[in-house]
Design brief:
The structure holds two protein chains of two kinds. By secondary structure, chain A is of the alpha+beta class. Chain A contains 14 helices and 13 strands. In chain A, the strands form five sheets. A three-stranded antiparallel β-sheet of chain A has the order 1-2-3, covered by helices on one side. In chain A, strands 6-7-8 form a three-stranded antiparallel β-sheet, covered by helices on one side. In chain A, α4 runs parallel beside α7, α5 crosses α6 and α12 runs antiparallel to α13. Chain A is globular and about 65 Å long. Chain B is of the alpha/beta class. Chain B folds into two domains: 154 residues, NADH:ubiquinone oxidoreductase-like, 20kDa subunit (Rossmann fold, 3-Layer(aba) Sandwich), CATH 3.40.50; 89 residues, no CATH class. In chain B, the strands form two sheets. In chain B, strands 2-1-3-5-7 form a five-stranded parallel β-sheet, with helices on both faces. Chain B has a two-stranded antiparallel ribbon with strand order 4-6.
Amino acid sequence: MVKTLKIDELTRVEGHGGITVIIEGEKVKDVKMNIFEGPRFFESIIKTVYYDKVPDIMRRICAICTASHSLASIRAIEHAFHIQVSDQTQILRDLLIHGEIIESHALHVFMLALPDYLGYPDALKMSSEHFEIVKAALELKKAGNMIHNIISGREIHGMNERVGGFSKIPNERKLEIIKEEMLNVKKTAELSVELLARKEPPLNINSKNIFMALNPGGKYGFIGDEILISDGGKHHINDYLNIIHERTVNYSTAKISLYKNQPFTVGALARIILNKSKLEGSAKNMFKTYQALIREGNPLTNNIAQAIELVHSVERAVVLVDELLSRGVRDERLPVVNVKEARGVGAVEAPRGILYHDYTFDKYGCIVKCNVITPTAQNIASIERDYREAASSLINEDEDKIKFNLELISRAYDPCISCATHVIRLKN
Amino acid sequence: MKEPASENKPKIGVFSLTGCAGDQLMILNLEDTLIELLSKFEIKSFQEASSYSENIRLDIAFVEGSVSTEHDLEKLKEIRDKSSLLVAIGDCAVNGCVQAMRNSQTSIAERMLDVYGVEDNIYRALEPKGIGEYVRVDFEIPGCPVEKEEVFNTLISLLNGDPPLIPDYPVCVECKLNGYPCVIIEEGKPCLGPIITAGCDARCPSLGLDCVGCRGPIKGETNAKAELEALRKRGYPDKYIINRLRFFAGNFPDIRILGERKNSKGEK
């Protein structure tokens, strides 16, 4: 007997997606993550645009990881035209990304994932019995947004970060406000780890996995030019197309990213696994306390990895502000850019994993070719593998239970479907 | 304010078509007031925030995102049919946003070939447009993204039975009220402030940047040719200016014709 399980619209995820699982007898025959977010053709529409406003368009691929897109875009342009930036710029960019991690992970961990652990359909319903938790979570998310506001000029789709630096450097008082706010919300970040650690993940599966993350350099962070792979591989980001193979598979219209013909995973779990030795302070201590809960084979433990990153980003933001203040904040003029025929690749660890922007320019500095690979697109193959794993292990359970668990997996990966759609085939 | 009984609360839904979901996120960004504000309404659908959804008649539907596929269009018509008031939130729903910038310049088939390597329109994609191109829209809140204060004020106005107030004057007005130096006159930057809807408190000029136009041109009041002429005089090439004007206004009548390609194939 063939039976088809379908979830038409995933909820509590970014964008529009669904799941189809086909079961034949006692076997899972087919799994699909269906994406029906409309295509926006960014790689096509950006052609002929002069480099200066390219990041302003490309960041609009996604609202929740807008700064990651903006910085990946800016770094691709800087690599193409050989532009060096100041230490101050690098610190401010780090700070901005930490703000994005805080805002995005707080939203995901508390509002989107935690209701599953505590048994509510959403955070609003959860707030009737856990008002203090939801209120604190909103404070934490707001603190991340505040970093965006101060550094980037707006919570979503800011404009202050530019090719070569920042248009206006935030003053010292504003940086102090960031620090005060981070110290205020640190407890909430720590609470997120403790809340998730109290319970076994609602689903336990054990998939064989490969992880990829950027090498952040000396400190645990989110910007880098080297790809680290859990099989020991190391590659410069310029070689990303030699590592990540996109291919069309016959059972689905989705383009799947594979590494050596295998699914691979990017995101918080991948970063924690590959860069854990660089954690510091309270994040390091919490990692040590709860590391048994971080399981390479269970994507649901991505939630606790995100929570540990929340703690890290809150603490790290304080350190970065202190560094800026001790150096003394100074105004800097944006460098003069000499455009030329060139190609540049930029990569950033967005909240959901490595994000690549790859541009080719003509001699006038206008885009002739563009390629973007988003973290969710890279994770689709892993998500489908885990659907298969979970559906197989639950095959004798009733349909609602299977569906609930498939949604859990989707949400654990924190997919960003708006991001993914310009590279993913939609369902027919 | 006394809590209205549940049956008297306006029933609302928040829906999303093709876009980045940033306008829904902006509603969630009303952190300080979110829980109290939403308690004044009965939320029947809010996809990004909740797995709870009910298919019933709504007093107010908020729609973000552009109509970019046949699926979007079907969904939009259903939402219109079951809602007393329809409010477009954000530039995607109002104007079609950045994904509409090549409308009348490249065909869907060309875009498909560029990104997916096939010409067939397998996603049933349409030329991206705002929702007002297809159904009656009662109010439009511009912005990419919307300003959260504007969302808050709109919700409160509608709660009180008042129409929301949206500026019908350009960004320049707010820029001057703030006393920012004009980035066109002082620095020769290609600012779109003179034709773009105010309401952002001149965010870009406040940072020394030229307005990129994310709130869209002022409907019925925009002289795109004059802006083109003004930037030409500053030495910007036509291709550059036309791209700039199109970023957030590919469907805007005066701008759509700029740089239009004759006989673009494959369009309906």
